[in-house]
Specification:
With about 180 residues, the protein is of the alpha/beta class. It has helices spanning about 20-25, 40-45, 65-80, 115-120, 160-175; strands at about 5, 10, 35, 50-55, 85-90, 105-110, 125-130, 145-150, 180. The strands form 2 sheets. The protein has a 7-stranded parallel beta sheet with strand order 1-4-5-6-7-8-9, with helices on one face. It has a two-stranded antiparallel sheet with strand order 2-3. The two termini are about 15 Å apart.
Length: about 180
């Protein structure tokens, strides 16, 4: 990742391990979903091609976000196709309108209860973030991906077993999928 672009911030998932919520609290800022139209031109104004993490201080599909926001953000990304965009959500609702060769669509997987996310992921460039990983994920719940991230939540002291991460790592290594371990 070269830089983060946050035209939408905040989230209502209420995860107690969320680093972005902790930062908002620290600086006494709201963590309610918010749209920032003044940031829409940032990718277009950055001419050097880069890997851009979209909305890393929120969730673009969080309850409280609006479809109109997502459409404007997608249109802004389309205006700067020289970048590669990383999208990540706990609540994937991607459809065909999200598929682009330079867009990587991601979903957070915290355990086997997130197996449903495989069914809604479309496109060629799919990635998963197993961070934080709170349970053992059987091989049948692991899915095709172009890249994965594995790790525990930053400064969160609960629910981690190296065997869980090892199982995920071995599965994706056998598939020749790049792994970022945090």
């Amino acid at each position: 990742m070269d830089w983060a672009w946050n035209p939408c911030t905040g989230c209502k998932h209420g995860c107690d391990y969320c680093w972005a919520k902790k930062m908002a609290d620290r600086y006494k800022r709201s963590f309610e979903p918010a749209f920032h139209p003044d940031r829409l031109d940032q990718p277009f104004n950055t001419k050097k091609p880069g890997v851009v993490f979209v909305c890393n201080t929120g969730d673009i599909f969080s309850p409280g976000t609006r479809k109109a926001w997502r459409e404007k953000i997608k249109a802004a990304a389309d205006r700067a196709p020289w970048h590669t965009y990383l999208w990540l959500t706990k609540n994937p609702q991607y459809d065909d309108s999200w598929v682009r060769p330079n867009w990587w669509l991601g979903a957070t997987i915290t355990g086997p209860e997130d197996a449903w996310k495989r069914e809604v992921m479309e496109g060629e460039n799919i990635w998963y973030s197993f961070e934080p990983l709170f349970g053992f994920v059987e091989d049948e719940h692991l899915y095709d991906a172009k890249q994965v991230v594995i790790g525990r939540a930053t400064n969160y002291k609960s629910g981690w077993a190296e065997a869980w991460a090892l199982n995920v790592s071995l599965y994706y290594l056998s598939q020749n999928v790049p792994i970022l371990s945090k």
